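Throughout this chapter, every protein is written as a compact record of paired, labelled lines. An example of such a record is reproduced below:
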Amino acid sequence: MAQQTENQAKIGAFIIPVTLFEQNCTLLWSMVTKKAVVIDPGGDVPKIQSAIARTGVSVEKIWLTHGHIDHVGGAAELRDALKVPIEGPHIADKFLLDNVVTSGARFGMTGVRDFAPDRWLKEGDQVLVGDVPFDILHCPGHSPGSVVFFNKEMGFAHVGDVLFNGSVGRSDIPGGDHATLIKSITEKLLPLGDDVGFFCGHGARSTIGHERLTNPFLSGAV
């Protein structure tokens, strides 16, 4: 069902593949406080709730990396069930969150709702998983309001659909722009350092260094 990891006893993570898109909904928690966040609950809310129960953590917030249906389809339902606030994405993705129902209908996803987060995020903001801080990087290109969550001390990021293991996010969709996406990756993500590991919205985790050397979309990046 999922994979679990620990980063030097600072955080734990449980990856929960959801919906037909196999989107990596991520349960992330502080190993000290057991306080947690759910990142990108795209759907299959009972499956997410089961993972929360299995880990025994206490979810305080929902984080959204961007507004596409496979990342936000279950957000309103999970917010109501857990009675926790939603943080993110950047307000540039408001047009996507205003049209969740319409987007869901195109893929046969029912029970989804249009919604607004309790807090929009912007470059330079900071969010917390229990006692563990994450900085916000605004990385448009896949969507106008895509954000990345980054913890410098641990060298760990959650990049949503901005960057993948061996690929990058699609830009041939409303609000997408390939040049902007590559600029976000080269100016915001690559400077984080080659040792930085990341989770992404689909597929396996990777490191910045691995992608710098092997990702065909980043050929020639420095």
Q: What stands out?
A: Residues 4-218 form a domain with the Metallo-beta-lactamase; Chain A fold (CATH 3.60.15.10). Confidence is low (pLDDT under 50) at residues 1-8.
